Amino acid sequence: MSLVNVTDLTVEFGSLRAVDGLSFTLEQGAALALVGESGSGKSTVASALLGLHRGTGARVAGTVEVAGTDVADASDDELRRLRGAKAAMVFQDPLSSLDPYYAIGDQIAEVYRVHTRASRRAARARAVEVLDRVGIPDAARRSRSRPHEFSGGMRQRALIAMALSCEPDLLIADEPTTALDVTVQAQILDLLHTLREETGMGLLLVTHDVGVAAESVDDVLVMRHGRAVERGPVAAVLAAPSEAYTRELLDAVP
Ligand code: ADP
Ligand code: MG
Question: Span of the secretion signal (predicted)?
Fold first, then answer.
């Protein structure tokens, strides 16, 4: 069974069709990048994988299966298990996902507790363990820091730690390096690569930057106006893009 199976997905916001009949699969443990210019529908797809359009007024058609869960049919309980425990998401701006007033370790522990019902003590230990795993130095002490005490790169690491805490089968990373400077970008991409090798989790990387995709994934799916314009092994697509649009994206890489 594929880890992700999307068939003929269409998402409409009022009269705007943001995703238009998109189909793709992602195998267990594989890494796929969704690339395309801003507004091409990438984040809308990422949200659909976790059922985040539910109850928002967006119109969703087609089928989306993630780690054995049919997202459209899932009960609230099943959706809760899907989000976090089976699939976890990290976003471009870690500050928007973190509460400024609480220690980072407590926030990770809280997420872990919601999904596992672990004791407070066990959840705190888990938070320190995952912070250490993503390369936060002196993790036990730094887990008591609040988000503003971390650099941008460390905040993104902390968010990845939060996502990892429940050992998801799939990590969805939506522009995880866009807000970071180039050196830190490379460190975060390295981290994602290492974690994938260690855990065997699948990765769906959403990025407007073809260069980022080239360094991080096996396959690339190029999106334009909510549709797939091409898909294939990243090296092959980048070496010989069959679409003019893909060539334009490549030309935009510095
Ligand atoms: P990308 O991630 O590729 O930049 P998005 O998926 O965020 O693209 O957006 C695709 C299109 O859908 C854009 O035109 C965007 O303005 C629109 N859109 C996204 N989310 C919403 C929403 N919640 N309500 C209305 N329009 C939206
Ligand atoms: Mg986006």
Answer: none
For the CA of 56, the nearest atom of ligand 1: 23
The predicted model scores a pTM of 0.94
pLDDT digit string (tens) for 47-61?
999 999 999 999 999
How many domains is the chain partitioned into structurally?
1
Is 192 within a domain? no
Is 14 contained in some domain?
no
CA 19 to ligand 1: nearest atom: 10
Nearest ligand, CA of residue 19?
1
Asked if residue 64 is part of any domain, the answer here is no
Name every residue whose Cβ is closer than 8 Å to that of residue 208 and which is 6 or more positions away in sequence. 35, 36, 37, 38, 42, 175, 178
Q: Is residue 6 part of a domain?
A: no
CA-closest candidate to residue 170, choices 202, 196, 200, 199: 202
What pLDDT digit, counting tens, does each position of 90-133 carry?
Answer: 988 877 889 999 999 999 999 999 888 899 999 999 999 999 99
Instruction: Answer yes or no: is the C-beta of 59 below 6 A from any ligand 1 atom.
Output: no
Structural domain including 114 reads: 90-167
